[in-house]
Amino acid sequence: MIFLKSYFVNTTPEIDFLSIMADVKYAIRDAQAKNGLVSVHIPGPAAAVTVFEPLPELIEELKIAFETFASEAAQGKDKRKEDVFIAPRVQAALIGRSLSMPLKGGSVLIAPYEEIFLIDFDKKSGRREYYVSIVAEDQAPPPKQQQQQQRKK
Question: How far is residue 82 from each of residues 75, 85, 87, 121, measured CA to CA in Å?
Answer without folding.
Answer: 10, 10, 15, 18
